[in-house]
Amino acid sequence: MIDNNSGLIIPEHVGIIMDGNGRWAKKRALPRSVGHKFGAQNFRKITRYISKTGVKILTLYAFSTENWKRPLEEVSALMSLFKQYLVDSLTDFREDDIKVVFIGDKNGFDKNLRKLIDESEEVAKDRKGMLLNIAMNYGSRDEILRSIKAIAEDVRNNRLNPENITLNDFESHLYTAGLPDPDLIIRTGGEFRLSNFLLYQSAYSEFYSTETLWPDFNEKEFDKAIIEFNQRNRRFGGV
Ligand code: FPP
């Protein structure tokens, strides 16, 4: 296991694009929803592991603003899994002192799921362990547009002069306001793209892609990503 005593730099903020549930199921001639079920189980297991490595913030991409385009059957299966696993994870995450926050447009979900989301945040609000951001009905473009609208509103109400708008003003309206940018973004399933995940925040993130499909992504795979991260030379535009 990798942790603060391993002599490695542990990234403060890690983002993960959990891709490949569908292919994992297809390989086994199972319905895609079964892949999501195993993916959700893995979400619980890996989150608990990462919380012990010294990572301070973990942002997981669970459902994008574009995922509603999937067949109704798959979307319904995902919503049921979110409900089930949020309830199940509440106990586990308490044991690990993990603070859960949801980023994305909660209004897109049904009343029951919204209630569960609110409750999960409420019971965890004073926890001091790793911060887990679950990105659900999240889209970076949507997030950016929301911030622009909020700034425009401030300008209209004479609270802000356009000349003086700063990056800080803009960032203060993002879901990630107050958080450091991700140091490392991991994508499972072999693709090399961000798919509308933390577009603004990932300006200087290190990107790591693995062929491993999300339900198979285990502790060892995470450690591999951290080792590779330690070999990167981060310059942030400098030399
Ligand atoms: C992408 O795989 C995965 C998703 C759209 C869903 C991710 C959700 C989970 C892992 C469940 C998380 C659970 C909670 C409670 C947050 P894909 O279907 O696009 O796979 P494919 O590329 O192989 O088709």
Provide a descriptive summary of the structure in words.
This protein is of the alpha/beta class. It has one domain (13-139, 182-229): 3-Layer(aba) Sandwich (Undecaprenyl pyrophosphate synthetase), CATH 3.40.1180.10. The chain has helices spanning 21-27, 32-51, 72-95, 111-124, 140-156, 167-171, 219-230, and strands spanning 13-17, 57-64, 99-103, 131-138, 184-187, 206-209. Strands 3-4-2-1-5-6 form a six-stranded parallel beta sheet, with helices on both faces. Helix 1 (21-27) packs across helix 2 (32-51), helix 2 (32-51) runs parallel beside helix 3 and helix 3 packs parallel to helix 4 (111-124). The chain is globular. Farnesyl diphosphate binds next to helix 1, helix 2 and helix 3.
- Which homologous superfamily in CATH is the superfamily? Decaprenyl diphosphate synthase-like
Instruction: Name the hetero compounds present.
Output: farnesyl diphosphate
Determine the number of helices (DSSP H or I, runs of at least 4 residues): 7
Strand content: 5-15%
Distance between the termini: 33 Å
Rg over CA atoms, rounded to whole Å, is 18 Å
Series of H and E elements? EHHEHEHEHHEEH
* Total strands: 6
List the domain count as a whole number: 1
Q: Average the pLDDT over all residues and give the rounded result.
A: 96
What are the segments in which pLDDT stays under 50 over at least 5 consecutive residues? none
State the name of the first-level CATH class: Alpha Beta
Tell the overall outline: globular
What share of the residues lie within helices? 40-55%
CATH architecture: 3-Layer(aba) Sandwich
CATH topology: Undecaprenyl pyrophosphate synthetase
**Helical/strand content category:** alpha/beta
* Strand arrangement across the biggest beta sheet: 3-4-2-1-5-6
Q: How many strands, which pairing sense, and closed or not: the largest β-sheet?
A: 6 strands, parallel
